[in-house]
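Weekly sync, protein design subgroup
Attendees: M.S., D.O., the rotation student, P.L. (late)

Item 1: inverse folding check
M.S. brought a backbone from last month's batch and wanted to see whether the design step gives back something sensible before we order anything. D.O. pointed out we never logged the input encoding, so this time it goes straight into the notes. Structure tokens as presented (523 positions):
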């Protein structure tokens, strides 16, 4: 395997118009003689329909894909090429939908989409796929990307078959692996060991789609390119940092998967921890993938593994509201009725290094809560000897600055500041300096999967998880997960659509923290 197209046009700030040149320049001058084949394994599934095909179409629509490309769907379900195309065009909803010529572009895109039905552990079926790929590649140098959008228990079978029978003979072969990467340190290490029998680390692209979200990508820009923020980024000025994920729906349809994992593995150990590592890392030597990932690993290794006392867990229960019945987690037919799997968790984490000593990093993640939201909240310390102290009464917390990065929905960055209310008196007000993306930037925000697919095609690994990062992440959570399971700790129940278990408030209060998303002025 070798990387032909190194560097990401997006990351390097290259305009879409210059993109053809970009690919030609760095892919050894053979664009016209090379092809890109993308095989979506598990093409009949939910993620493929919801995210992967729409992202590929958006990339095609905006001319980010190279001139010669084909897309194959692979799964056991028997489908014709036409049926796959109908599924793609029928279910496709993405940001491009309302653009000019969308239908024509879709028609052209669908002509590049094909399907092969096969078993996941059959080398013979992957050899058949290889023949079809070769036919489309027509003797050109071929780069092949496999996207494993399948349950993890079949990752290794697919990688074995694909690497033995369908890897590229003349170009690179890369594999995007969806989460979950194991259930704990041991199973994750075993998965990595098995994958590495067939692939090098450079060929494995472990995806965490939160790293592809616009605001997460912007986190480093905000910090490292603004003098007003970088000097404040430490225990000297920051009192606590909060990483919050909430969904206003339950496990609907994914209960079978979810019950085996729970919210800590589903959201905290990966999405929230990855954001935390990006937030807290030291300045990397450069923007190179290895330099960034080196710094993230250092942060993760500086953290104290979670203990039971640092965590509270919850599970949503059914209830009636406004004449509507909301199901509880265990009402889901794919979930055991006595399940104690957490659908909510809050945790306090600490980084034992000079920059962050003593600063609580709080995480909160839950399903079936009162709203859908993902955000990073940075609460700053009090102003020492604040001249206006008496204007805030006894509640000094109301006078502290807070920086909020709203990852979704309605992306925004805002800073809560104290301001004088205009008028003759001296009344202070907490106001927002607000950068609301939809007001500032007219263009739609690309979906995370677009960015990540493009990165994988370009061989840019910055936003993918390296195996040592994964080990470090699991080391933090594995002892806690084992203890929760061994002791069969029952989650605190919370009503579907509520703000979650009260325990989350007590946990925060233990560290003198208030959740910024609840009870505040932007709640
Ligand atoms: N859906 C989502 O929102 C998200 C999903 N993911 C991850 O992405 C991957 C794909 O997710 P999703 O599309 O929801 O998964 P699905 O359960 O829809 O599975 C994808 C395809 O895999 C095949 N499959 C399913 N179960 C089995 C099985 N037990 N044995 C063999 N094949 C099976 C089916 O295809 P066929 O029967 O045709 O072979 C199915 O269409 C998973 O690893 C998931 O954890 C990650 C983030 C979000
Ligand atoms: O990885 C996952 O993410 C989704 C939430 O993703 P988002 O981009 O819609 O915020 C979550 O619903 C799912 O449980 C989890 O596996």
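Designed sequence read out in the meeting:
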């Amino acid at each position: 395997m070798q990387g032909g197209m190194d560097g990401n046009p997006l990351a390097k700030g290259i305009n879409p118009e210059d993109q053809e040149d970009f690919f030609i320049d760095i892919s050894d001058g053979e664009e016209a003689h090379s092809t890109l084949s993308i095989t979506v394994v598990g093409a009949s599934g939910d993620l493929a329909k919801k995210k992967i095909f729409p992202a590929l179409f958006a990339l095609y629509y905006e001319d980010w894909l190279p001139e010669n490309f084909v897309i194959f769907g692979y799964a056991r379900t028997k489908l014709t090429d036409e049926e796959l195309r109908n599924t793609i065009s029928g279910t496709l909803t993405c940001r491009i939908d309302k653009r000019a010529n969308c239908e024509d572009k879709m028609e052209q895109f669908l002509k590049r989409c094909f399907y092969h039905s096969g078993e996941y552990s059959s080398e013979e079926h992957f050899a058949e796929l290889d023949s079809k790929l070769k036919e489309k590649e027509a003797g050109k140098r071929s780069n092949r990307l496999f996207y494993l959008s399948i349950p993890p228990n079949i990752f290794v079978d697919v990688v074995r078959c694909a690497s033995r029978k369908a890897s590229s003979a003349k170009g690179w072969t890369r594999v995007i692996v969806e989460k979950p990467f194991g259930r704990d340190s041991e199973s994750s290490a075993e998965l990595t060991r098995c994958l590495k029998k067939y692939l090098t680390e450079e060929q494995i692209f472990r995806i965490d789609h939160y790293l592809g979200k616009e605001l997460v990508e912007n986190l480093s820009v905000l910090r490292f390119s603004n003098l007003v923020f970088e000097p404040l980024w430490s225990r000297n000025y920051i009192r606590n940092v909060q990483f919050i994920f909430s969904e206003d729906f339950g496990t609907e349809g994914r209960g079978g998967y979810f019950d085996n994992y729970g919210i800590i593995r589903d959201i905290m150990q990966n999405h929230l921890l990855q954001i935390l590592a990006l937030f807290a890392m030291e300045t990397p030597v450069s923007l190179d993938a290895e330099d960034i990932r080196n710094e993230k690993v250092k942060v993760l290794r500086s953290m104290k593994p979670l203990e039971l006392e640092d965590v509270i867990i919850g599970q949503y229960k059914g209830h009636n509201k406004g004449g509507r019945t909301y199901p509880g987690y265990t009402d889901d037919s794919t979930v055991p009725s006595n399940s104690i799997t957490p659908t909510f968790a809050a945790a306090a984490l600490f980084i034992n290094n000079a920059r962050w000593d003593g600063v609580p990093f709080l995480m909160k993640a839950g399903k079936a809560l009162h709203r859908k939201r993902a955000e990073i909240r940075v609460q700053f310390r009090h102003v020492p000897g604040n001249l206006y102290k008496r204007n805030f009464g006894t509640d000094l917390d109301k006078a502290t600055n807070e920086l909020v990065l709203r990852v979704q929905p309605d992306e925004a960055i805002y800073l809560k500041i104290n301001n004088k209310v205009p008028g003759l008196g001296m009344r202070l007000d907490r106001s927002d300096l607000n950068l609301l993306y939809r007001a500032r930037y007219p263009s739609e925000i690309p979906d995370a999967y677009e960015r990540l697919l493009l990165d994988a095609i370009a061989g840019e690994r910055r936003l993918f998880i390296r195996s040592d990062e994964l080990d470090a992440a699991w080391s933090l959570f594995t002892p806690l997960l084992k203890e929760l399971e061994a002791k069969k700790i029952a989650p605190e129940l919370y009503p579907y659509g509520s703000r979650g278990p009260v325990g989350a408030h007590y946990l925060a209060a233990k560290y003198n923290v208030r959740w910024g998303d609840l009870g505040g002025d932007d709640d």
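Discussion: Residues 467-486 form the longest helix (20 residues). The chain has two domains: 16-178, 212-510.
Action: P.L. to compare against the previous round before Friday.
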